Amino acid sequence: MTHDRQQDAPRTEVGRNVTKIDAFKLARGEPVFTDDIHPPGMLWAKVLGSPHAHARVLEVDATRALALPGVVDVAWHAQVKAIPHTRAGQSHPEPSPWDTVILPPKVRFIGDRVAVVVAETLEVAERALGLIDVRYEVLPALTDMDEALARTDVLIHEDPDPRGIAEGGRTNVAARIDKQVGDVEAALKSCDHVVERTYWLPRVQASHIEPHVAISWLDEDGRLVVKTSTQVPFHLRRILARILELKEADIRVIKPRVGGGFGDKQEMVMEDLVALMTLRTRRPVRLEFTREEELICARVRHPQRIVMTTGVMNDGTIVANRMRVTADTGAYGSHALTVQGNTGQKVLPMYPCAHIHFQVTCLYTNNPISGAFRGYGAPQGCFALECHIDEVAKVLGHDRLELRRKNHIRLGDTDPLSAKLGEGKEGLVRVIRSTGLEKAIELGCEAIGWGQRQEPTAPHLSRGLGMALAMQGSGIAGVDWGAATVKLNEDGSVNLAVGATDIGQGSDTVLAQICAEELGIRYEDVRVLSSDTDLTPFDVGAYASSTTYVSGGAVQKAARAVREQLAAIAAGRWECTTTDVRFGEGQVSGPGGKAWTMAELASHALYQAKVQPMATASHLSNESPPPFAAQFADVEVDRETGEVFLRRFVSAVDCGTPVHPDLVLGQIEGAVAQAIGYGLFEEVIVDAAGRVRNPNFLDYKIASALDMPEMITILVPTEEPSGPFGAKAAGEVPIDGPAPAIVNAICDAVGVRIYRIPATPERVWRQIKEAGE
Amino acid sequence: MRMDLTLNGRPAQWEAAPGATLLAVLRDEGLVAAKRGCETGDCGACTVLLDGQPVNSCVVAAARAHGHRVTTLEGLADDPLMRRLQDALVEHAGVQCGYCSPGMLVSLYHLLRACRAEGTRPGDHAIREALSGNLCRCTGYVKPVAAAAAVAAALAGIPATGTEAR
What we know:
Distance between the termini of chain A: 73 Å
Largest sheet of chain B: 5 strands, mixed
CATH architecture of the largest domain in chain A: 2-Layer Sandwich
CATH superfamily of the largest domain in chain A: Aldehyde oxidase/xanthine dehydrogenase, molybdopterin binding domain
CATH superfamily of the largest domain in chain B: [2Fe-2S]-binding domain
CATH topology of the largest domain in chain A: Aldehyde Oxidoreductase, domain 4
Number of domains of chain A: 3
Structural class of chain B: alpha+beta
Oligomer: heterodimer
CATH class of the largest domain in chain B: Mainly Alpha
Largest interface: A-B, 56 and 52 residues
C-alpha cells in the first residue's frame, strides 16, 4: 500500500474540537428523539406488571378491559408463541442464557410482564390495566442470593435445558466461572502476608434521562418498522426476526437521537412488545416507560459480594490474587455471564502476578433484572481490588501509591487472564502496546497534591486523599465488529453511513472526523447517517467501549478505499502512477504541480470517468487495548454525622489519541458523576419481598449540579498501534475508579474502612462509632 | 376544558382534558423541546417558563396556564440571550445526548435574565443552584456550568429584546 495517508502529515481533523454534529438541533429542542413525532393512528401501550415476585399466571381475563371504550387489544402469554431467547443485545450466539419469552407464563419479579394493552389514548390504556383480571399461583420468592444458592426446592427457571443456563432445572445458578492462572492456593502458603477482605456492591440504575421508548408501525409494503431508543439496532432486528418469525429484511430498526443509554439500552427492554402489538393490530404502537418503571423494570447494575484474597511478600511484591464473586442477576440472566466475567477480566490484570484465581457464582433471584451498565462489571471488581490494595498496603506498612507503582501492569506486559477469559469463552492473548498509566499517576498526584496534607475546613471535619487505578478494554477482541460506507459526491462532500450507534456520546462526530482525516477533507464536508438497518451496514452497536476503536477502524478503512479509487482516477487523468497522487487539506496533487480540489476530482469522477467513488469496509480487531485511568479523591468527613463531602476529584486518563478532546473530557466527567453516586448515595433498595422501595428520582438520588466536586480532568495521550489514528476507548474506564478512590479517601480521613457502598452518612457514622468503641 | 393563554408571546386557545399536565398539552401541540423524564417534578427535563418563572411542566396542571404566559424553549428561539446560551453550550461541548439540554437552557436563561436586570454576575454556585433542578446523566455538569459562566461574563452586552422581554 503505497498511497497511505502520509504518516508524517499533521492531523487536521483528528484531535480537533469540532462542533458536535447534532449539538445545535439538540440545543434548539428540535423533534429528534423517538417520542417527538408520532405516526397517525398511533395506539398507546401499557404493560401490566406482576404484583408478585414469583408466581404462575394461571388465567388472564381481559373481558372487562376490552369492553372499555378505546381499548383495542390485550395480549398475554396464552396468545403469544413462546420462543425462548435472551433480551441481551449481544453478538450471535449470545453468551446470555435464552431464558425469556415475550410474555412469560410464570412471572419472576415484581413488575414482570403479565399482559400488554393498547388503546387510543394513554389514559385509556392506563385505566385498562386495572380491568384485566389475573389469577396467580403465588410461589415462594427468593430475593437473597445466598438463599437462592442454597435452595433447590424453589427454582426460578425450571426448564431442564433452556439454552445456556449454567445449571438449568437443577439449581438457581445462572452462570459460573472458575479460571485460574498458576496455583493460588499453593502460592498463598509461601507468601509473607495473606490479606482477605469482603466487599459489597449495590444495585444501581443507569438513569438516562430519556426513558426507554419505542414506536413501531407497518410501512406501505407491510414491513415492520421499529423506531427506538436503543444501543443495539442490529442485534434488535435479529432477535425480533427470530421471535416474531419474520425475515430480517422485513424489519427496519431506526435509531433516532437517543437520550442516554449507558448500557441500559443494550437490551430489548420493550421493542418486542410494540412490534407484537403492531403485528396484531396492524396499527402504529408506542410504549414508553415511566421513571417508576425504569427503576423497577429496566436493568440495574449487578449487585455483588466480592471476597479478595491477596498474597504478598514483605517487599510489596504481589504474588497471588484471588477474586471470588457472588452476584445477583435477578429474574433473568441478561449479561449474567459476561458482566461477571468482566469483573475479573477487566480488573485483575492491573496487577499481573503468576497466580490468579477468578471465581464467579451468579444467581437467579426474584429481584429486578440486572444487566449491562457502563463499566459492565468492572466498577464492582475495581472497587474491591483498589480498596483491597489500600488494605494490603496498610497490613504491610507500605505506602499505597508505591505499592501500586511496584505492581501495576506495564508496556509490553501480557495480560495474564486474557487467554483464559474472553466474551463468555476462551479469549485472545492481550499484550499492552500502549500505556500512559505511569504518566497518569504522576500528573494525577501532582494535581491532587498527593502526599501533602490538606487542612480540614472546620474542626468537626477530617480530610483525606484516596486514589484508584483502572483499566478497561476497547471493544471485545475478536467479537465486536462494525462496517462503514463512504460515498463521495460531485462537490467533494461525503456521505458516511455507519451501523455504529450514537447515543449522545458523539460517535457520529468522531467517526466523521476519522473519515475526513483519512480522506484529506474537512470534517464539515462529511454528513453521517447512522443506525438504520435498512440503509446502513452492520455494527454490533454502542457498547463495550467499542465505537471509536472498532467502528472507527471500519470508517478509516472505507475512507482509505475511496481514496485509493480516487488516486486511480487522478493517476489515469494525469498519466502518472497512483503513488504519485497525494491527498490533504482538501487538495489532490500529482507530479509537475498538477492539483485538483477534492470537488474538481469528484466532479471529474462522476461526469468524465463516470464512476461512483464509494466503498464499504468491515473492521474487527483481535485486540482490545486497555485505556487506563488514575483517579484521585479529596474528601472531608464529618465525624459527628458521617457525612462525606467530596471536595476535589482528579482523573488522568489515557485513551490513546483523543479524536475529539472535549468529547473525551465529557465522557470522563459524566462517568465520574455517575460513579460518585455509586460511591456515595445511589442504591436501588429492594425489600425482602422483592419490591423496589425507591422507584423515583426523589428517593433514588442521582448527582445534581450541587453534588459535584471541583473536577480536574487530564488527558494523557498515547498512540495505540492497533487503533484508528492511535485511538483507544474512553467511555467506560473513568467510571471504575471514583468509588474506591472516594472510599480510600474516607479511610485516609477517619481511619475506618467502608466495605459496603454507597458510603452513606449512616454507614460511615456506624463505622466511626464502632472504631471508637 | 377550554383555555386562553399567551403561548410563546402569542395568544392561544387550548382544549385540554381536565387532568392533563402542561407538559402533555405542550407536546401534543408539537412543542417538544420540553421532555418527559420523570413526571414527578424531579428531573427538570420539562422546564418551561410560566409567567416568566421556571416550572416543571410535568407536575403543573394545564389548567394553570389559563390566563397566563407560557414560554417554551421554542418561544425563545430568537431571543439574543437564549441564542448566546445555546451557542455557548454547543461551543463548550455541553451537549451530549441533549435530552436535558432544553430544560437546562430555560433554567439558565431565567437566571441570567434576572442577573442582567439586576446588573449582577452569577458565580459558579449561583449557576449550579439554577441548574440543580435539571438532572443530567451525561456531562457531570462541568461543561454546561462553564458555558453559562462564559455567557454570564459577557451578560451586559446581550440585548434584552426577546419574546420574554416584550
